[in-house]
């Protein structure tokens, strides 16, 4: 990536961080300096991307996208997704990861300084980090149906609960679970 594009991306992400994440950093600092961060592209996990759990942050006005596959051409997809604000994924050695319109930050690095704000539509929250275990009221975005899905891990392959709802819904989450909020947010 050329230096100008990296600087523009860093400024964009810094502005987004102030708007979308609870932070302890001053707004004139690179919000992710010193954190293990990966930019758009395709990676082979174990060679040019360290296996583990990552927070993905959208860097565009359009949806961010990720795909985890077991082959170089992406035909054997393990998991993929579009997201408005963020997603959380886990990747293993030997897999291939494609990042588009997003960056990946190692989860321990991210949560050492940030949490995802709960009043935004289009987020994925880690229970015990972004929110505490418990019962929450979800509010659908104006004029649409809201949707949530709950996972026991960040592989996002086995939904344990989900719901498409109008206006509002109640949901209960446990420590260590993940909740994806689409067109809705926590009240």
Average pLDDT taken over every residue: 88
- Main beta sheet strand tally, sense and closure: 4 strands, antiparallel
Total beta-strand segments: 17
Structural class: mainly beta
Number of domains: 2
Strand content: over 45%
Q: How much helix is in the residues?
A: 10-25%
Shape: globular
Number of H/I helices: 2
**What's the N-to-C terminus distance?**
39 Å
- Give Rg in angstroms: 16 Å
Oligomer: single chain
Could you characterize what this model shows?
The chain has 187 residues and is mostly beta strands. The chain has helices at 3-20, 107-111, and strands at residues 21-23, 37-38, 41-44, 52-58, 64-69, 77-83, 86-91, 96-100, 102-106, 114-116, 123-126, 134-140, 145-151, 159-166, 168-173, 178-182, 184-186. The strands form five sheets. The protein has a four-stranded antiparallel sheet with strand order 2-9-4-7. Strands 3-8-5-6 form a four-stranded antiparallel sheet, with no helix packed on it. Strand 13 (145-151) and strand 14 form a beta hairpin. The longest helix has 18 residues, at 3-20. It starts with a helix and ends with a strand.
Structural features:
four-stranded antiparallel sheet, single chain, mainly beta, 17 strands, 187 residues, 2 helices
SSE topology:
Layout: H1 3-20, E1 21-23, E2 37-38, E3 41-44, E4 52-58, E5 64-69, E6 77-83, E7 86-91, E8 96-100, E9 102-106, H2 107-111, E10 114-116, E11 123-126, E12 134-140, E13 145-151, E14 159-166, E15 168-173, E16 178-182, E17 184-186
Antiparallel strand pairs: 1-10, 2-9, 3-8, 4-7, 4-9, 5-6, 5-8, 11-16, 12-15, 12-17, 13-14, 13-16
């Amino acid at each position: 990536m050329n230096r100008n594009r990296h600087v523009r991306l860093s400024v964009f992400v810094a502005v987004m961080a102030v708007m979308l994440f609870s932070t302890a950093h001053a707004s004139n600092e690179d919000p992710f300096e010193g954190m293990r961060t990966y930019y758009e592209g395709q990676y082979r996990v174990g060679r040019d991307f360290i296996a583990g759990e990552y927070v993905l942050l959208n860097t565009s006005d359009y949806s961010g996208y990720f795909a985890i596959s077991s082959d170089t051409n992406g035909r054997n997809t393990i998991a993929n997704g579009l997201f408005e604000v963020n997603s959380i994924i886990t990747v293993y050695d030997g897999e291939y990861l494609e990042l588009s319109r997003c960056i990946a930050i190692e989860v321990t690095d991210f949560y050492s300084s940030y949490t995802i704000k709960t009043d935004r539509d289009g987020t994925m929250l880690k229970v015990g980090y972004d929110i505490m275990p418990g019962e929450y009221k979800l509010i659908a975005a104006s004029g649409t149906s809201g949707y949530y899905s709950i996972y026991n891990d960040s592989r996002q392959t086995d939904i344990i609960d989900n719901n498409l709802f109008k206006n509002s819904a109640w949901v209960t989450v446990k420590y260590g679970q993940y909740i994806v909020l689409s067109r809705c947010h926590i009240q």
